[in-house]
Amino acid sequence: MQGVNADSHRVTPYAARAARLAVPAGILAAVAGAFAYVAAVDPNEPGHYPACPLLRLTGLYCPGCGGLRSAHAFVHGDFLTALQANAPAVLGYLGFAVLWTVWVVRAARGRPLRLDLGPVHLWAVGALLLVFTVVRNLPFGGWLHP
Prior knowledge:
The protein is mainly α.
């Protein structure tokens, strides 16, 4: 190719690092935007969010019931209320923060994020959510109601 300088196609280390951090930054922006919206629009006020279809049809709490109230309380620093509204959601927020931080550090160093979650891990999470759901719907599990 005549007239094309081979040096014009070099990627600087700064540009390469910025490109590797673009996806984690986009994910963080989306999550921060969602949390900002839930912080501003109180889910405790009726009419802002749709009701849980399972709760509406059966009267049973699903594992996600109380998640928006939990996020609202979490953003406002009321961690006990967040845990009471939906404890697995709070664990999810904290897990996301840790995972995202590891992802950014590895991306900045040019190393991919590798999650070696096998079927055992996924089944364990599913079983814990199932137990949480069953217990919160039993009479003695009332303290887990959102």
